[in-house]
Write a structure and sequence with these properties.
Length: 366
């Protein structure tokens, strides 16, 4: 049932090209230039009139929410807030009738997310769910929703759920951008085509497995690791760090690269590996100067770069190349080598990859 893979996590990492495709199949019709999702079409007016979107989630799903914040604001120009469900529910939050609450959950059973939804409904907000498990509590409790089609995720560390959540949220943002006229027609059509190329590019990104394994062998005994990214890839830095800590028990932290100089830079010395997400699009030059700052303090640099990159290659100790895509879609690719890196480090450390200590697949208690 692991399909020839040693662990469910690895199987699920490798399923990503096909489950991303499953997630947009029937929804993204690039030849007609349309995106159709029943949960959105049926409630389009609500979305178009929304004054704010509040995303609630936990863990990896919260990271997908952060990526969505950047995408929604850029594409559809709707203000977005991303909240840990556990904080939101206990804060007496300000929720208005014109707010849409989007709950993201793989399992659909996370207690804090469920409680946040109930609170939002009591306050009159429209609640939209992005769940993977069909018929789950969150999918039933929400007013409408869109499923990710990731299939069962068995490994406790979430992988394919994350990329399919980002896929669904990108589709929604594009649909709203078209309806609101906040994106040019040419950009809109370009994104539809680029999204259709993502599964093949994820498959190509999976070819980084050997280099990820090699790098894992070098750093598997490090007690700490930093992950840095900017813009769309800041949440990917958080997710990369979470993946490493939860399955390998190495202390890891993700930061927006520019926050380094406000504290974490003090940690950097020759024994600190720093994973930097530095694709060519986006804030490339800024990330390059962050890499220089790390290098001048002798930190070890593992950089995720766009294929053909030369500038970062000169500075970094290791580079992992991924295919080119637009900045907004890059998290779907940059995430892949980070999943593989964590996986190999955990295996080499003899950890129980699919069932890490102290963790449960769905957290049904607060
Ligand atoms: C991380 C992980 C957890 C979950 C979190 C939310 O790999 O698995 O952080 O992402 O418990 O779970 P769901 O998405 O089921 O609500």
């Amino acid at each position: 049932e692991k399909g020839g893979y040693d662990h469910f996590m690895l199987k699920e990492i490798y399923e990503q090209p096909s489950v991303i495709k499953d997630t947009y199949r029937g929804r993204l019709l690039s030849n007609k230039g349309i995106i159709q999702m029943a949960g959105i079409e049926d409630n389009l007016e609500k979305f178009l009139n929304a004054e704010r979107i509040i995303i609630v989630a936990c863990g990896t799903s919260w990271h997908a929410g952060l990526v969505a914040e950047y995408i929604f604001e850029e594409f559809a120009r709707i203000p977005v807030e991303v909240e840990y469900a556990s904080e939101f529910r206990y804060r007496n939050p300000i929720i208005n009738k014109k707010d849409i609450v989007v709950a993201i959950s793989q399992s659909g059973e996370t207690a804090d997310t469920l409680a946040a939804i109930k609170l939002a409904k009591e306050n009159g907000a429209f609640v939209f769910g992005v769940c993977n498990v069909v018929g789950s509590s969150i999918s039933r409790e929400t007013d409408a929703g869109a499923y990710t089609h990731a299939g069962p995720e068995i490994g406790v560390a979430s992988t394919k759920a994350f990329t399919t959540q980002i896929t669904v949220l990108t589709l929604i943002a594009l649909r709203l951008a078209k309806a609101k006229g906040t994106m040019s027609n040419s950009d809109y059509h370009r994104y539809l085509l680029e999204l259709e190329m993502i599964p093949d590019k994820v498959a190509e990104a999976l070819e980084t497995n050997d280099i990820a394994k090699e790098i894992a062998g070098i750093y598997k005994d490090s007690p700490n690791c930093l992950y840095l990214g900017r813009g769309y890839n800041f949440p990917v830095a958080l997710e990369g760090a979470l993946k490493l800590k939860e399955i390998s028990y190495i202390h890891a932290e993700g930061y927006p690269a520019a926050e380094m100089k406000h504290g974490p830079i003090a940690l950097i010395d020759e024994s600190m590996p720093v994973v930097v997400i530095a694709p060519k699009m986006g804030h490339y030059d800024k990330v390059v100067s962050n890499i220089q700052e790390i290098k001048s303090r002798s930190g070890k640099i593992i950089a995720v770069v766009t294929k053909g990159d030369t500038q970062v290659r000169e500075l970094a100790d290791h580079v992992i190349e991924i295919p080119e895509t637009s900045d907004a879609l890059s998290p779907l690719l940059t995430t892949i080598p980070l999943q593989l890196l964590s996986y190999h480090i955990a295996v080499m450390r003899g950890c129980n990859v699919d069932q890490p200590r102290n963790l449960a697949k769905s957290v049904t208690v607060e």
